[in-house]
User: Fold these one by one.
Assistant:
Number 1:
Amino acid sequence: MTVFKTSLRNFLAHRGRMALSAVAVLLSVAFVSGTLVFTDTMNTTFDKLFAATSADVTVSPKADDENDQGNGNGNGNGRPDTLPAAALGTVEKAAGARSVEGAVDSQGVTVVDSGDKNVGSTSGAPTIAGNWTRNDLRSMKITSGHAPRGPTEVMIDADTAKKHGLKLGDELRAITATGDLTAGISGIATFTVTNPGATILFFDTGTAQRALLGATGRFSHLNVTAEPGVSPTELKREVTAALGSDLGPYRIQTRQERADENRSEVGSFLDVMKYAMLGFAGIAFLVGIFLIVNTFSMLVAQRTREIGLMRALGSSRRQVNRSVLLEAVLLGIFGSVTGVAAGVGIAVGLMKVMSAVGMELSVDDLTVRWTTPVVGIVLGVVVTVLAAYVPARRAGKVSPMAALRDAGTSADGRAGRLRAVAGLLLTGLGAAALLMAARADKAGEGSLALGAGVVLTLLGFVVVGPMLAAGVVRVLGVVVLRMFGPVGRMAERNALRNPRRTGATGAALMIGLALVACLAVVGSSMVASATDELDRSVGADFIVEAAGPQPIVPQAVAALAGAPDLTHVTHYKWVEARLTAPDGTTSTTGLSATDETYLQDLRRETVAGDLPAAYGKDAMSVGEGYAKKHGVEVGDTLTAAFEGGRTAELRVAAITSDDTAIDQGALYTNITTVERYIPAERMPGDLMILAAAADGQEKQAYEGVKAALAAYPQYTVRNQTDYKQNLQDQIGQLLNIVYGLLALAIIVAVLGVVNTLALSVVERTREIGLLRAIGLSRRQLRRMIRLESVVIALFGALLGLGLGMGWGTAAQKLLALEGLGVLEIPWPTILTVFVASAFVGLFAALVPAFRAGRMNVLNAIATE
């Protein structure tokens, strides 16, 4: 109890000095807790939605499970897989079935208003069209107008209507694989559960069958409602028995099974987002460790006499150690509890951001599981105690005789030498691992070496940081500080006074900037490599692509065919097939089925055979990797069982090089070959269309292509310049998101600089008083502290940027195996970050410098 009272007294006495450490713990725990609350809330939202929209039992085509993948495009042609209406009558005979209704739904639809503006979802959520059924009343209610009664009427969800200013009577055009359908809004339906952002469109059943399925007498699934007292499991058993021998083509699922399947599809995305965000929170925790270590190290040094007196009065090393660790526990608890509360606020903020970009999340679904505060508090306390362990041990080693001295604990020269040797060894091993990764022949082996190299070099730089500080700070002093005369030299000496402290403070900033530099190098290299590949390989002038996974509808293809000033148009389809190689192995893969003009649009190198010959009758090409793996040679025959079609024997006419980033490993065949084995109604649509302009007519042709597709806003037309810019924008947006998440770690690192300076000012109170007494002005004093902060920040920036560029270079060399062949160092970004680090140092020193300048000279001199 005495130890606890002592720890509590010390904690409260130094609460101001521990405030920034508490903020670091708070921020890190808040990010973890906010991530958990946010993802749990999203799970709750989708769970409620899937539970509300699933019938007691659902009967759907079995092929839907194998090919649809949740996008309503089981055949690759924009139409979902279907089952015959006759199955409805069969299921109605099942015991326990109260009612059965046929449902139509498809995600292969785009909705535009009268101005050809896309009113579908833009947040990644689907646009779903179907027929209005009784099952929809479980999750929606008609709040305006009425359900559609014919082909000229359509009903839309209230969220979409509000977002785009739609009202009753407005005309909408649904673009589907079977054609365009124009209808007026007859009703608006409002969700009774949270809609995460999907756009929902309802037609009458007959219209939905014709427009979405291409035929009447078909449904995409059946909704079966159970009689009172009949469980979904019992109903499933009865429906299975009723279908009897016809069970083969169907999947029969209970409400829970259907909801679980939908949840698993969404859950994989949520898990990736969750663990990515937790990873950045982990980086912030790692940076926070340096802040806490510095805080407790400096507090222990400043309390040397106090600790020595405690030892002289009978306190054991263990009691002193425990006292410091209890202070860390108190700090961890305070920071963690407030962090958990802040995390809920962060989660609400993230929900508002998601709502702003189109994914609606309701605060009513806010979910705070009991595990969230437990994880946050335990994590915060454990990290804080671990960070304080070394300073606590150092405090326990203070001898009673230290009470007679003013100085802190003496430095252990032997420990410093061992630290330097260990740091150099770790750095050398890490550099060797990075070199192995850069020279690897296989991506798997290289990835392991790269990961090991990153970890080892990071640890090495952290351990050897104090030794590096002595040299790097002197160099920075010559370049940056000497121009400020005596004040600059004093700032340099202050930074060098405790290399361990400077090294730890700089290391905190180093981690975040190393990741920034690494990602900047990889991102710039990706853009440069793709640009180089486009220049070398792509001959097409224009590329037409869909924004999502849906194929290009036939009417858009026909419109493009009539565009002026084009020499040719190339269709690109993706065809699923089970390939049996000469070695007897069978695998499901995709064939790139294109027109022969694709050879003009994409220049590919061959290692054997003749690529144009692969576009002959019943011929194909394979990639170099596939050929080596299966022992395929030119002239061999592969058996291709086409999905939804017949089996073909295809002769290998060419083997293409895998030394490319575009279509690496692709298997090519002619569209006319595929058309002989797949029925027209099962033939996949175009995933992409390429076109070439007549010489000198590029500008006119570009305008013509865009005009031809103006009525189809879901497709993007790009020339090569647009394509390069889009790639650069996409990578830039991704990097900006990552930089934003890394900002948390950098903020914590800045807090570390502030805390180090603040405690250093307290530690040097008497010295500052003496400097003021002999003529140092307040302005000079503040400048000295600001320059010290700048040189520490620049030290961390130099280490971080150098380390990050090394990581990025090794990563690029490894990714060269996948076609990322151009290394580009983004010097403007690197230099901007370096200069910005100096401003970070200036910002971090504002408060400590201001406090130092306000010190009373006589009181400062009298301080012991």
Number 2:
Amino acid sequence: MKAGSKLLGALSAAALSSTVLAVSAVGLPVVMAGPAQAQAVSNIQVRGNQRVEADTIRSLVQVSPGQNVGAAEVDAAVTRLFATGLFSDVRISRSGGTLLVEVDENQIVNDVVFEGNRRIRDEQLSATVQTSARAAYNASTAQADVEAIRAAYTRVGRSDAVVSVQTVPVENNRVNVVFTVNEGDRTRIEQINFVGNNAFGDGRLKEVIALRETGILGFLQRSDIYDEERLRADEETLRRFYYNRGFADFRIVSSVAELDEGRNQYFITITVEEGERYAFGNINIDSTVPGIDGEALRSELETRQGDTYSAEKVEDTLVNLTNAVAAQGYAFAQVTPRGNRDFSSNTISIDYVIDQGPRAYVERIEIRGNTKTRDYVIRREFDVSEGDAFNQVLIQRARQRLEALRFFERVNVSTAPGSEPDRVVVIVQVAEQATGEFSVGGGYTTGGENSGPVAEVSVTERNFLGRGQFVRVSAGFGEETRSYGLSFTEPYFLGRRLAAGFDIYHSQNTSGSYDIERTGGSLRIAAPITNDLTAQFAYNYKEETFGDDTGVTRLDPVSGNPFLSTCGNPDPNGTTGWGAPLFTASPIINEAICDSPYTTSSVSYALTYNTLDNQNDPREGFFVQAGQEIAGLGGDAEFLRSTARASMFSLLSEEYDLIGQLSGGAGNVTALGGDLRVFDNFFKGQDIVRGFRYQGIGPRQNGVALGGENYVNASAEVTFPLPLVSRDFGFRGAAFADAGSLWGVEDSSLEGIQGDDFALRASAGVGLIWASPFGPLRVNYAVPLAEEDFDRTQEFSFGFSSRF
């Protein structure tokens, strides 16, 4: 140590009957010789400084000429000098009336360089390390940065990454700090095992957690990368899964991740203890607050006697009751659930006790860790703000909302004492995650307006510029189709929970007997009425062109006769071909084509009731939507279109993960003031009854689909995991039965019209669903069981899938 080399010289100075104090780099004062009492200092000399001004060092020493200086003053001066981070060593000694301050300055970091990194970009690593340009170099900090870089690589599945650091001197006592990375091979999860689970199989529990075993498409996903924090998060997910299905005594005994270094693979074993399954017993509301009638609040209960116990329903009830009593003016009332287990009947009775809580206020809400997301995006998820009454239930509900945004890997909400006994500081700690997606998908759709090979490219950002806004740009390409779209949504329009946005689109299709080109857009707003009920309003405008302006001759697929794709009749006797205009065999369609382009200006509204447990892969709950579209605010169309659809999902078997779905829908379109255009009808087929082509059912004229003014449909389906196939591949099987009808045209008395009456179509079949990295894909095989002679059937269909 440099300080030790100075001690010998200091001893000789002590022989001159002066007091000598030396402080080493570790900051411990040593009285070398002379009397112990403090003595006055006449001047301060600074040595060893190159960049730091001597006056700056003197100001940090905080000793003035004439001041008595002892060991305590010297120790404090050394501490202050080291605290600046500018010096690697500090030595203070005294000879007579002179206080000598000797320093060794830290080298300054000229630049921080990363080498060998491909999986993690320089910008991401720069945000990970503490060493930065123009700051003093610190070896301990650099070693800590090495570990931080290794941890970052572990999170992306590179547990065997090797990181080293070295310094390269440059002029003026500066250094370049170089972190060299050997990324190694990807470390994946080979196997996830569960021990102690009886109510649910391994496959079902693997679907619950986020971590996945490496599959054949592992190169397209990142869920097969082990991360300790993600495993801890999965533990909490498992607890909530069991707690919401009656297992109130569930606990995780252990979760162990073992790395096979030779194979560079993780093996995870999660041991659980399920306990008994409970149902709700008696449900009571007890109030100790004068003026609050517990019985009057029973409509706020989400828990029902006899239902399977669910912690989530208890939480929802707490929020409902808390909001209800606050609305009555009792801001400090607290709702506490008290459970009473009956082990003989396996029931849990719940007493919701309403007490007058302590008067505590939110002093402030501190947001930490948000490097991208703006503070106000996080704050607006809280139903409380600075100065409001503190309520733990509402604070935890805000945490759940923040997690549901999918902006953050982790959200932790804690509290700390405020400046006064009745003040509370709410601390929100978040860890950002990627919110942008670039998607490339492809497939082959059959039987529809956009039949044939299709590809779609889209860029989606869920947290645009950190403002919480949703933006999506997409482009689709097919053999005979083109489509482009732009969507934008502001989830908090005008500072309220109003989701407002717009959509712009353009599409072209040349696959049918006539071309279709559409350009349009909409302005929309959605307002939540309750947690499950939402109202939507929109203004819509589109322009549609039907037909082909190129004069290309088309052939009738039945007779082979030519259709002249031009409007007007060049022969007064109508003898050209079959008479012009002849796009199709249907005079109704031909007339409508010649009247295009059309413009439609409309307003629409809808109510949506949604209690699905998972929006992407539902197993329980309802989705019901009903709405109307009114056209006639300008444009060429005047109609009232009413539609409704509903789906119910139910988990038929937890053990085998069988999901049942019942769906139904209906629609009617009615002219307002004039005739209804044929292209304003509903055109239906495989979208309501599988086993039929797009536009495969309903009224026809000379074999050409006219659509219908009314439709109804119903469907029953069961989906299940495929046996002998790992669930990590994302495949599920389906068995279904469909029924429906499409009927009603403006003038059914015209020549050649068939199928204008209600006639039921039905089919049954099986399907294969794949939750692919490109989106949900599905192939169906359906056999029509009830059909009309003029219908168009198609047993196989393939395309993108939607569950509801």
Number 3:
Amino acid sequence: MSETTNIIPVQIEEQLKQAYLDYSMSVIVSRALPDIRDGLKPSQRRIIYAMHELNLTPGSHFRKCAKIAGDTSGNYHPHGEQVVYPTLVRLAQPWIMRYPLIEGQGNFGSIDGDPPAAMRYTEARLQKITMEMLTELEKDTVEFRSNYDETRQEPTVFPARFPNLLVNGSSGIAVGMATNMPPHNIGEVCDAIIALIDNPDLQPLDLLEYIKGPDFPTGGFILGTEGIREYFETGRGKIIMRGETEIETLPNDIEQIIIRSIPYQLSTSQLIERMVELVKDKKIEGISDIRDESGRDGMRIVIQVKRNHDAQVVRNLLYKYTQLQSTFGVINLCLIDGVPQVVNMKEMLQNFIDFRHEVVLRRTQFDLRNAKERLHILEGLKIALDNLDEVIALIRASQTPNDASVGLQEKFGLSEIQAKAILDMRLQRLTGLERDKIETEYQELLIIIARLTELVEHKELRMNLIKEETAEIRDKFADKRLTTIIPAPAGSFNMEDLIADEMVVVTITHDGYVKRLPVDTYKVQARGGKGLSASNLKEEDFIQYLFVASTHSYILLFTDHGMCYWLKVFEIPEASRTARGKAIVNLVKLAEGDRIKAFVTLKDFHPEQNIVMCTRNGLVKKTPLTAFSHPRSIGIKAIKLREGDELIDARICEAGDDILLATHDGKCNRFSESEIRSMRRFSQGVKGIRLRNGDYVISMTIATAQDQLENGKPNSSTILAISEKGYGKRSPISSYSVTRRGSMGVITLKTNERNGYLAALMLVRDDDDLMIITQGGMIIRQRVSEISVVGRNTLGVRLINLAPNDVVRDISLVHSEPDEESLDKEVETLKAKPASNLEEFADGEDEEFAEEDEEEIEEMDESEEDLENEEDNE
């Protein structure tokens, strides 16, 4: 080894760390992040500057992009023209740039995801708005630096007259950091700049008065303002974007979804491919066809919906599973004096104002220097014209130009610059007209110098000038917003919006299995049929409850221990007719030992409605429905029960309704709901029917005012009673006289060896369908109109043929579709009811309801005393 060899030992860890740090800073500063002042990355700035040098101004001829890319690569950006061209293309794409900086001619790609043509086929020139970034470049407004081979000078930043970073946004991935800034409307941004100059104390959120939020070139919607407020205040936030859609109905009643716009940075081909995947995977089953009919009139993607599917639900599924609704994560990361920083909206605008002030000051100083230099020359010319004969004689007597210059300086006290200007003056300037022009120019320069001097000395004047120039930009380039901001409650959707609103049958077994299936699964059969198997139950289990409800309905589940749980029908898994279903304990957190004994289905929580509950021992209780509108994951207490008693049923009632309680021995008591005072949830209730020894309540029915009378006359509603052995009958409501609460009741169905005991009692109408379910899991559906209407104290007729040892367990109704008249009445009724605020219903409000429960306990002792006094009197 040579003695001159110099070996420096280096730790490889330190070398790698330093090398990676150098690489990281190079990527951050020279490649990936934009400058806060002009909003451009180095590659973008070099492309525009190269086009500026080629004089590709608006109105000039287009030049081949290959020439532009070649000049940029050869003069300023040493990474190859193939790398430069994609950046040039992006600056010209109107679906990427809110205000494109380059005007392209030829195939520059499309929002469908099509690639641009090769750069030898496309042409480009600068846009008018781009010239506002370059107009003061020659006035020493910004610093220049040497290019990569030190043969040319390039600007470090453009003296932009508008904040391009806010107007067009930016995105880039550096090493260990990334930027993602949305575009904004230039008119709104200019208004915010003017407002911030007028009032520097404005806070970031105050700027929302001027800048409403992002304004994407693809239009669409932004859901809510929470994400906007976040990035205005912190520089980071999440914006939910949604494409513009509408639902059209064709003459054949087939619905189709029309997509008019898509979220920013999404191509139509990506969206369509994703929709096709979802259809193939059967995640969305309501789509029959997808067509792209976009053209000169704009975007039009047609999604044809199958005839038996809801277009609104399909659209919500598209929002959930495709990029038709997506999130734009805002990261306002940019370079400030070469250092990457995350800035909020005020900091971004203030940095631009400070930069703009610096540009205006340097421009003013540049103009002032030039004006003074010109004034200095004009002063020399005036001296020469005032002493014209002597000047001419001196020049003629001089041997060389240098001798003439020295002579002029010495004789008239001129500077070298003034002497040179006199020597360079053409003879035509000696005419009287030219002498007047010099005098006029001299006077005008004095005025300009005075104004420029005042600008240099007073910052307030410079700030006013910035406001005027910003207003000029606004007036020249401002346009209407393309993106609409929708308030969050109106634009958001939840899981319920992904489920079609349809009627389903819900079954709950004795062992706690629940399922839902379409109501048309069970075909109507004639009276006396054998029915269908409703589920493949395990041994000793049987279907205990069956009811029909909308998938959007709420279910209040009441247990035998008096607890209430809250559930939505669509949360119940759909299963086949013979499937067992899902254990209800997996849907609601039942307390140990609790069993579902009653349920209430409803669409809304109306303040004028109540929940009436009855117990096995004949107690009844009325509680406002709104007391159950705030669910808790562990349930809420619905009624206080005495030892040995249990909850049997719970129903909704309103003022004017009658309550019918039926017992196992076939007795029924009818009384008005007004005889039960309204109680809070923790109270116990009062006596509804007096029971004989060994008897107990099995059923409760509510007869509404409409059920009793329609247009002042008895309507078609009747009371249906069915025995355990499948015999039943209908009786007029009028045959059940209204008595007092606590009476023993009257006979509703004769119980004997043939009939067995009473199984259920229900109010029905002629146009209803009856569903009977047995302990063995058999179900039959038949028309109510086929069941005879007979007297109250009769045996009834056979409604279902039972297998040996099987008994009727429960009945339910399937209501027919309402006609237009009855539907109008229902709509008017719903309009008259005050709307409840369902947005407040949420789990996790334990503290609030713990306080409510403590208040209700105070009323508990009072209700118990009422019950004991009543029993003593009887």
